[in-house]
């Protein structure tokens, strides 16, 4: 496809996204089924432009004086992808696949040196988040809300976990040189491939031999830090209560060095399906997957776990760099439902902690309503649990570097938890707390 056709396709997909409020990947897949001539590079280009347009939706709309899909796509390709205005004019007007010639107003706005119009300083505009979330985000970040949220509107790096069950970190890092991967000096087992420039595809990590041998896992740094909060778990009894696809389960298994016993459970049995294959590929040998589909309960584990790891259901606000469509689909009603689910999950998971054991609470959300408020309500009813220092627990895992301790110190909350944000450590937004049972 030529650029004109790609730009038009992006506008069509954004229009469908607005109309149906479905995940962007669904709108993209539906478009691709009806346009099978589009190759992999075409689809990557179109998807990249749509994602960037949604990352910066509010600020692009302000710059264009219009929030239509056309305005967002034109603004993204001009201001974020830096296409010269002359070239953009030719692309838009190209027949027969162009999006249509630029209007006089579009030419004026797209010719500006920056995408931000003068005076557009409202936090939800400069920070590119839904206006209704302003009080929630201001509560979490105060006067820094707009600056921090701008980091959530940037492209994310490709983060990797070096799987020590299959290879030592040095060996895995050497294999990553072909895709320009480098160590992240926060955890000893973390690596990163920098986010590609707009319109460029990220390196295909999953096709290199090291990945297929199980030496590497694609996992955000924040997620890796959260898993390390399980602490010193070699030989321990550990439960991943909301295991899902198993990314943190595999990280826990590596920390355990295949010793002790690791249990993975999720109420939605369908989410556990990938874990069977992933665990085999990663060389995990101490894992029991307890699936509701097989009638496998957890009653025999009550009060016996050294660590109960709870990666709780949440709004996903912390993943907006990678999934910007979700911030425009989130509603107040959905947030309330998630909070109710979190209260239930936390109460249920606590039953499996043994005296002296730890309960690790994790969400991929920075909102206090999904974290401090939920923990506060739980602690009010469970006096046998108390907050502990997350950094000390991560240090006990043996994976935290001195530089990492310094970096994470800026993320510590008053009660010893961590609120991770991309402006501080280039990670997704995570909240991590450790509760200790008396």
Question: What would the keywords be for this entry?
Answer:
12 strands, 21 helices, globular, Rossmann fold, 438 residues, N-utilizing Substance Protein B Homolog, Chain A, 2 domains, alpha/beta, 14% strand, 4-stranded antiparallel β-sheet
Report on this model:
The protein is of the alpha/beta class and 438 residues long. The protein has two domains: 3-115, N-utilizing Substance Protein B Homolog, Chain A (Orthogonal Bundle); 221-437, Rossmann fold (3-Layer(aba) Sandwich), CATH 3.40.50. Helix content is 45%, strand content 14%. It has helices at residues 3-20, 24-34, 40-55, 57-64, 69-80, 85-93, 104-110, 123-126, 134-141, 145-152, 169-175, 209-212, 221-228, 247-256, 269-282, 325-329, 332-349, 372-381, 390-396, 402-409, 422-425, and strands at residues 158-162, 182-183, 190-193, 216-218, 237-240, 261-265, 287-290, 305-311, 353-363, 385-388, 418-420, 430-437. The strands form two sheets. Strands 5, 6, 7, 8, 9, 10, 11 and 12 form an eight-stranded mixed β-sheet that branches. Strands 2-3-1-4 form a four-stranded antiparallel β-sheet. Helix 1 (3-20) crosses helix 5 (69-80), helix 2 (24-34) packs antiparallel against helix 3 (40-55) and helix 13 (221-228) crosses helix 14. The longest helix has 18 residues, at 3-20. It is globular.
CATH architecture type of the largest domain: 3-Layer(aba) Sandwich
Structural class: alpha/beta
Percentage of residues in DSSP E strands = 5-15%
**Percent in helix:** 40-55%
User: From the alpha-carbon coordinates, what is the Rg to the nearest angstrom?
Assistant: 23 Å
Mean pLDDT: 95
| E-strand count | 12
Number of helices: 21
How many structurally independent domains? 2
Anisotropy-based shape: globular
Low-confidence stretches: none
Query: How far from one another are the termini?
Result: 63 Å
The largest sheet, given as strand count, sense and whether it forms a barrel, is: 8 strands, mixed
- Name of the CATH class of the largest domain: Alpha Beta
Instruction: Tell me the CATH superfamily of the largest domain.
Output: Vaccinia Virus protein VP39
| CATH topology-level fold name of the largest domain | Rossmann fold
């Amino acid at each position: 496809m030529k650029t004109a056709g790609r730009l038009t396709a992006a506008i069509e997909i954004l229009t469908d996204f607005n109309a149906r409020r479905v995940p962007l990947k669904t709108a993209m897949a539906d478009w691709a089924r009806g346009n099978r001539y589009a190759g992999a590079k075409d689809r990557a280009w179109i998807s990249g432009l749509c994602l960037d347009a949604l990352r910066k939706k509010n600020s692009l709309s302000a710059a264009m004086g219009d929030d239509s899909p056309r305005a967002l796509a034109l603004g993204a390709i001009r201001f974020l992808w830096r296409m010269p205005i002359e070239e953009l004019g030719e692309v838009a007007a190209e027949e027969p696949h162009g999006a249509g010639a630029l209007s006089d107003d579009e030419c004026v706005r797209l010719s500006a040196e920056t995408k931000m119009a003068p005076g557009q300083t409202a936090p939800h505009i400069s920070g590119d988040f839904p206006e209704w979330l302003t009080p929630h985000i201001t509560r979490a970040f105060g006067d820094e809300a707009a600056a921090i949220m701008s980091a959530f509107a940037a492209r994310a790096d490709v983060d990797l976990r070096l799987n020590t069950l299959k290879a030592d970190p040095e060996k895995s890092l050497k294999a990553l040189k072909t895709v320009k991967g480098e160590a992240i000096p926060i955890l000893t087992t973390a690596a990163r491939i920098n986010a590609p420039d707009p319109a460029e595809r990220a390196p295909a990590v999953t096709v290199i031999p090291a990945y297929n041998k199980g030496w590497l896992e694609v996992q955000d740094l924040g997620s890796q830090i959260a898993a390390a909060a399980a602490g010193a778990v070699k030989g321990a009894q550990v439960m991943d209560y909301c295991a899902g696809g198993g990314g943190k389960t595999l990280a826990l298994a590596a920390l355990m060095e295949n010793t002790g016993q690791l249990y993975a459970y999720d109420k939605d049995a369908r989410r556990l399906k990938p874990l069977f294959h992933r665990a085999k590929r990663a060389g995990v040998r101490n894992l029991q997957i307890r699936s509701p589909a097989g009638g496998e309960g957890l009653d025999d584990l009550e009060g016996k776990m050294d660590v109960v790891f709870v990666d709780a259901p949440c709004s996903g606000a912390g993943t907006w760099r990678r999934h910007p469509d979700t911030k425009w689909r989130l509603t107040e009603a959905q947030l309330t439902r998630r909070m109710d689910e979190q209260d239930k999950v936390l109460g249920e998971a606590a039953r499996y902690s043994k005296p002296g054991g730890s309960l690790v609470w994790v969400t991929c959300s920075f909102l206090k309503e999904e974290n401090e408020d939920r923990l506060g309500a739980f602690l009010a009813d469970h006096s046998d649990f108390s907050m502990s220092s997350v950094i000390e627990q991560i240090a006990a895992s043996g994976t935290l570097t001195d530089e990492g301790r310094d970096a994470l110190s800026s993320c510590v909350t008053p009660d010893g938890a961590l609120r991770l944000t991309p402006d501080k450590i280039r990670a997704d937004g995570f909240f991590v707390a450790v509760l200790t049972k008396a």
